[in-house]
From TrEMBL:
NCBIfam families: thiol_BshC (TIGR03998). This is Putative cysteine ligase BshC. Residues 384-542 form the Bacillithiol biosynthesis BshC C-terminal coiled-coil domain. Involved in bacillithiol (BSH) biosynthesis. May catalyze the last step of the pathway, the addition of cysteine to glucosamine malate (GlcN-Mal) to generate BSH.
Amino acid sequence: MQINPLTLPAANKLAADYKNEADNITKLFDYHPYKDFHKRLLDVSERDFNRDELTNVLHKLNKEWGAPEETLKQIDRLNDKQSTVVIGGQQAGLLTGPIYTINKIISILQLAKQQEEALGTPVIPVFWIAGEDHDFEEINHIHCPKKDGDFKKLKFRTRDTGAGKKSVSELELDKQELEKWIAAVFEELPETAHTKDICSLIQEVQNQAANYIDFFARLIFVLFENQGIVLVDSGNPAFRKLETDCFLELIQKQSQISNSVAETLKELERLEYPLAIDAEKSDGNLFYHDDIQGRILLKATENGSWIGKQQEISFSQQELMNIARNTPWKLSNNVVTRPIMQEYMFPTLAFIAGPGEIAYWAALKSGFHVMNLLMPPVVPRLSFTFLDASTKKILTKYHLGVKDVILNGTQATRKAYMETNGRQEIDQVTDGVIEKIKEAHLPIQNMADEMGDDIQALSKKNLTYLLEDIRFMNKRFHKEFEKKYSQELNEFNQLEQILHPHGGLQERIWNPLFLLNHYGMGIISQLTAFPLDMEKGHWVVE
């Protein structure tokens, strides 16, 4: 296996300027993404963390998910007061969701290992599963490649009526439906030397899983066996109980946090950056979990009360604080306060971020400061493009560069190739014949114009019939042409599907299952073991 760096532009303008260290963006962060780890370690060492209770909860959760011994050892190391974590997170997608989830975990493991060697202190890799999120539509499907170069969206349908309202952690997992769905996914897989083993592993995980988070976590431990990744479900009641004091402070400082974030967003808008999040000064930045109505976003009113965004519920500030003290699992964070809660809970050396996360974290520095916290270094995650031998052969055949296809696809190249080989001539010939027929038919039309409306209409219909016959021949010529060059068209479609799916990066559409089926389970451990420079960003795996 060969792994080589490839420079690609960032996915959005803000992330690009952040990587290029533009002054107007770097001032919105507390640390440089790659150079301030020693400084950050000193800053974190000055804070106290509830390490004993945190490690107890992490042990319980990870053991329930069948964590390997290496993960449990990493959790124990959190009791060392010099230890820190590299952390990142994502929702619990079915079969992990798109490849970028795996890329994020690889990034966490890589940076944790690199910084432990550089700093000489324990650095634990932690993945934050956003189990409190209620966007089930975002995690309930995968895209399966089709032979025509497109993708089929295989969607898992749950009978739980709370889907879309309740947190994913709270949803019931219909194991019979999951079994059917996984079988349907494997029907889309081409048979390889690895298919049966992968199917057996996933079936074993599926049989052991009690809910969606469980299914996700157990699969991660299968994929990253003995890599030491520590998982946490932010929707777990025991974990959320540890968040009580932070919830209380977030409630008390709601106005300051919301005002500061709203002001930063105004500054970003003034600088003409697309805004990654919406924020208003009345935002409560917390959700309340109602047993009947599900997860409800809260807003703060001028008279000090807290109401649902659609006015479904209402609490006084004291009532909400009592909820935080007595039943904190009924509260959860939104996009603004989740990073703050993460910083409160873990001694964070660095946060691993995708381009979208970098864009919205740019608005949060002042919110951290309101809570007397510093925003951790925000490190762009690694990204990969997988290039198999067949795809590489096609690139060579048409003299195409992998970077150009990743960025631009093959539409323009395919069009130029087909026109060079005669497709353009089809239109030129038939268009020329059409113009000649129109010209030759003009005397008939002129004669008909002098003989009355009926014959005039008949002459126009006659011309239409003649032109339709030529256009029919044009379509048939194109059909025969495409049949003649079907192999070439299929090859261009293959390049588009693999390297530029749906107009973007491979990692956003492809599921890791299809890579595992091609390369085998060892691909994950190979990527994790390979020393990857975090600043390089994107890597091509051959």
